[in-house]
Write a structure and sequence with these properties.
Length: 292
């Protein structure tokens, strides 16, 4: 065999193999796209929290004399295997009030523009359509309509459930206790929990803000991976400087959760959304048929 002919044959073979490989890769990518579950995310408005004393959100006096406006989003995740609501906004008793309600200590002024039923109707749903409820934690601004979902199973960390349902909490924080104590369907979980078993919707155990505080990981076909922070961070500056609010249940746990959260975000390439950030609320990816 003449050398030029041999070289040409080898080149032709390599080109053919490369073409086959590219075709196989394209077919695999197409198959993965077809197999990816259709997941839709809706970001809903659970109200506004005006923080009149931002100093509460750090262990030192760095925020002394400052105020801030927090968004208070909640979310609906529609998956082929069910529908999850993440968080539950402020109390629906605020809807229709002419002025924001200010707490007796003056630290917070809160308002809520609309009810759960009205907001769900805007996306073609009712409270009965929610299969699962998970609260990042049970503070008042995340549990407002938790008892208004008749068919939902509450997915809650064992540590959070024990904390919020204790006689001590009923006496010390009756509003928080009564926001969730009548939920009939409860599934206690321990640690990270894959809601639908395919890695696309995962509750991430991040304790410290409360004993069973969690974040939520989503892998959305149209937008890629993202992380909802719960209240691990309220402010971008707190994330940058690892500042811990003075009312967190455990500072060391919070700092450990911050490290775990950032490592997980880096490993997955997930975009982080701070749930109380008005800017993040306004830029959340949406299902195509719903506008905030």
């Amino acid at each position: 065999m003449k050398r030029p002919f041999y070289i040409a044959l080898v080149l032709a073979t390599l080109i053919s193999l490369a073409g086959c490989k590219e075709k196989q890769q394209a077919e695999v990518a197409e198959a993965q796209q077809v197999m990816a579950p259709d997941i839709r995310l809706y970001t809903l408005d659970g109200g506004t929290v005006m923080v009149n004393n931002l100093e509460l959100f750090a262990q030192d006096s760095v925020y002394r004399g400052q105020t801030a406006e927090f968004a208070d989003a909640y979310y609906v995740v529609v998956h082929p295997k069910g529908t999850l609501m993440w968080d539950a906004g402020l109390s629906q008793g605020l809807v229709g009030m002419p002025e924001p309600y200010t707490s007796p200590d003056g630290n917070f002024s809160v308002s809520r523009p609309d009810s759960l039923a009205t907001q769900l109707a805007a996306i073609g749903m009712t409270p009965a359509d929610i299969d699962f409820l998970s609260l990042s934690h049970t503070h008042f601004d995340h549990s407002g309509h938790a008892e208004a979902l008749p068919g939902a199973t509450w997915l809650v960390q064992e540590s959070e459930y024990a904390w919020i349902s204790s006689p001590e909490m009923e006496a010390a924080q009756p509003d928080m206790f009564h926001a969730v104590n009548d939920i009939e369907k409860v599934k206690q979980i321990s640690g990270d929990y894959d809601v639908f078993g395919d890695g696309t919707v995962v509750i991430k155990y991040m304790p410290g803000h409360t004993p069973g505080h969690c974040a939520l990981f989503l892998d959305l076909p149209q937008h890629g991976p993202l992380l909802l922070s719960g209240d691990l961070y309220h402010l971008e500056l707190n994330r940058l400087n690892k500042r811990v609010p003075i009312f967190n249940s455990d500072v060391k746990q919070t700092l450990a959760s911050m490290r775990a959260f950032e490592a997980f975000a880096d490993s997955t390439g997930a975009r982080v959304y701070l749930q109380h950030s008005r800017d993040d609320f306004n830029t959340m990816p949406q299902a195509p048929n719903y506008l905030k």
